[in-house]
Fold this sequence. Notes:
globular; alpha+beta; two-stranded parallel ribbon; 4 strands; 3 helices
Amino acid sequence: MIVLKDVLALLNGELLTPGSILEIACPKVFASDLMSDVLTSAEPGSLLLTGLANSHVVCTCSVAD
């Protein structure tokens, strides 16, 4: 299991929302750029890794969870 702050460090990510809780454990990770795959295969509570950066990702995640 990985913690969100470790994912941020491993990916050399930039935190865009200061004050966010980064001690959240991520028991499962799902990676896809196809939102249809997210809807059909991702398990609720999974961390989604995607190269997309648009409103469709947010909408898909709210429907999938």
